[in-house]
Amino acid sequence: MPEAGCDRIMAQAAGPRFGIMTAPSQVAYRDVLAVWRQADAIPQIEHAWLFDHLMPIGGDPNGPTLEGWTLLAALAAQTERLRLGVLVTSNRFRPPAVLAKIAATVDVISAGRLEFGIGAGSRPGHALARREYAAHGLPFHDGVHAVESLSEACTVIRRLWTEAEPFDFEGAHLHLTQAFCNPKPVQRPHPPILIGGRSTATLRVVARHADLWNIPGGDIEDAVSRSRLLDRICAEIGRDPSSITRSIVLSVSYDDPGSTRAAVAEAIDAGFAHIVLALAAPYPANAARWVADVVIGPAAV
After folding, report:
1. Is the torsion defined by CA of 236, 239, 241, 247 positive or negative?
2. Most buried residue, 71, 79, 209, 247, by most Cβ within 10 Å?
3. pLDDT per residue over 180-190, tens digit each?
4. Ramachandran angles phi, psi of 77, nearest 5°
């Protein structure tokens, strides 16, 4: 279970934390970089995120998609203040011990600004997401396997970040011999862990391993229902539900920013203290400044 010392996560009582998400698909690197650099200079925007897909899941199916963790490392080197992460890493794409090394490297590059997002992986019914696996020679296991693997991955990744000596691990799906990670992440005891998902099985993993829980937005009633379920699961295992920050992704409407502001207000009223504003490409001019002035500013009043 996460250590109480992960005090980098702002308490919900401190008010909502706003961030942006720029899906690195159907867009050029220079355009994503421009948005992140501008956001880095805007205090109201505290965090920034990419997604983790290897091929487009919208628009031209053969269009460009940049690999999330490679891009995150580049953006970490080009920014100074933003907390940053991948929302969320697919545990199906990379062996967990390799992912722990990648994430530790990004935390070093960013001087301790990583927020580690992870999830079970793409939904099996999403055809454009499902094709990524065959196209890259990756197995696509059933949901039970995916969630069990996620739990084992969270255990191993935390141990690699915190344990001073090599260790062996024998799980149902993961087997490691003399596993070790050096250098460790900058953050102590480790970068905050954000787990995304909504299924009951995934929420059980959240309750045991996460500092933050994220759900894609849109249906606030569903998000609230899932949040209450997470409360109950935490109570079952003896964890304080308030120790898990509630995070939600909300799409930004450039044409109707009032609807975005209303969705933000509803999410905050429902107890979501970590707000991720998803920006669709192509981005408007000065996109980060526009979001801060038109969406975040009014919501923070």
Report:
1. negative
2. 247
3. 999 999 999 99
4. -75, -20
